[in-house]
Amino acid sequence: MNKAIVFVAIIAFTVALMDDTAMTGGWYNYKFSNGFQSDNSNPLTKIFKKLSAELQEKGISDIQFTSVTSQVVNGQNFKIRFTYTQIDSTKTGYCLAYVSFSGETCEIHEVELETTPLASNKDMQNGGWSNLIIPSNFESDPNNPLTMAMNKISNELMMKNMTFVKFVSIQSQVVAGQKFKIQFQFLNKNGQMSIGNCLAYVRSWENFVEVSELSFTNPLQLSVQDNQNQNGGWSSYNFNVSELQNGTSMFSSAYSKLVNTLLKQAITIVSVSHVESQVVSGVNFKISFIYAEKNNLKTGKAIVYIQEWTQTIKITSLELAGQAIQY
């Protein structure tokens, strides 16, 4: 068959599958139906087979495309969201792919596999929303959509002299990206613990985060036990190395303050053995550590107070080798 005829036929097939609504950069929604894998003339078939083969080596199976956008260049670019199964968990992924008009070239780029399992069907809510189990230590992954949403919310709150504390509950919806309905705890400008709600939309592969419908409730009325835990008591704080390297949390700021203070006295922290936190009008961090001084290893403790909305960071207590230190 004449190559020119094949070329024109493929372009006609491509245009027929495009939605009429154009997006930024000439991207269009790409229509596809279940069973497209049996149509060898569909460029998605080539992408599906190539992607499946690559991911199978990682123990990933049951790939299903959920949304596709297309851009016509000298061939076609595709942005593809998909679900997959790994170790009995259903997760979401993204990839960028290119297929030439002749179909001879198929390239997969920027494969992104998310770490948060999707909720099972029984948890599905109206409109495709599902309850999301908040994974522990998700903050250690800067590319996790939840981390990106948390950082955006934290910045929004800081502009209002408020401090983000933690997520309380989340619902998610997989679209061309992920949407989250988020309830979170925060400290208001008076240092009172309160509850907030918002919507967040994340396209992690484009580093895009949008927060909307931000709302706040009155300060929480805490029980006696809650008051002991939240305002008067200490609780263990689980930190990780990447948190200190990224410098994006209150604890990393508190730790940096302690490290720099000790360096002025020729003291180097070797390791951190334990951390506790206490929510007041701000946050106290009680840090137990091992340090080196004149080639000898010793133990120390410090309490560092941080109040983000006033940019206050100060060491309120320092103990080295069992001796209180004035600094």
From TrEMBL:
InterPro entries xrefs: Cystatin-like, Cystatin_sf, Prot_inh_cystat_CS
SUPFAM superfamilies found in the cross-reference section: Cystatin/monellin
Cleaved signal peptide residues: 1-16
Keyword field contains Signal: yes
Protein's name in the database: Transmembrane protein, putative
Keywords: Membrane, Signal, Transmembrane
PROSITE patterns: CYSTATIN
